[in-house]
Amino acid sequence: MSLVLVDDHQLRQALKNLQAAGQDMKPAMRKIAQAMALIVEDNFEAEGQPKWEALSPVTIALRTKAAKGKTEGGFRILQDAGQLAGSISTDYGAEHATIGSNLFYAAIQQFGGMAGRGKKVEIPARPFLPINADGKLQPEASEEVLDTVMRHLRTAVSR
Question: What is the pTM of this model?
Answer without folding.
Answer: 0.83
